[in-house]
Amino acid sequence: MALTELRKSKMMAHLLDALDEGQDIGHYGRLTLAMVAHHFLDEDELITCLQKDPDISEAEAKALVLQVQGKDYNPPKRDRILEWQQQQDFPICPTPDDPDACNVYRELQFPDQVYEHISDYYEHKAEQASQ
C-alpha cells in the first residue's frame, strides 16, 4: 500500500521503476528516494528498494536510511532535485521542463510532522531576519 502511495508521484514512480529494472539511479537519486520514501515505507522496505540499485551495498543502503532517519530530513524541494540532477547521469526528474513536475509536496500527502517541521523552520528564519 505504501508503495502505491509513493507511485502517485511520477518522479517517485520513475525512480522505483528504474530500481525494479536494476538501474543505477545515482547517489542523488537514492538520496531523493530515501528522503521521500522514509515517510511512507518502514526501514526494511526502504533498504530493500535501495538495494535494487546495483551501485549500493546492503551496508550502504542501511547507512543512508539511518542517516535520513537520524537527521529527520524533509523531502527535497523541486529546485534541489533539479540541482542534484545536474550532478549525475541518471535523470531524477524525468520531465524537468514541466514546472509542475517533481514537486513531491504537490503530488504526495506527507505526515503532519513534515509540514510542522517546515513551518517551524520558516518561523525561526523569519525571527532571525527580524533581529
Description:
The chain has helices at 2-6, 10-20, 26-37, 43-50, 58-71, 78-85, 104-107, 112-130. By secondary structure, the chain is mainly α. It has one domain (2-130). Helix 4 (43-50) crosses helix 5. It is globular. The model has no long low-confidence stretch (mean pLDDT 89).
Compact summary:
With 131 residues, this protein is an all-alpha fold. It has one domain. Helices cover 62% and strands 0% of the residues.
N-to-C CA distance: 46 Å
Helical amount: 55-70%
Query: What is the SS-derived class?
Result: mainly alpha
The Rg value, from CA coordinates, equals: 15 Å
Sheet of most strands: none
Tally of structural domains: 1
Please give the count of helices.
8
The percent range for strand residues is under 5%
SSE arrangement:
Layout: H1 2-6, H2 10-20, H3 26-37, H4 43-50, H5 58-71, H6 78-85, H7 104-107, H8 112-130
Helix pairs in contact: 4-5
Give structural attributes.
131 residues
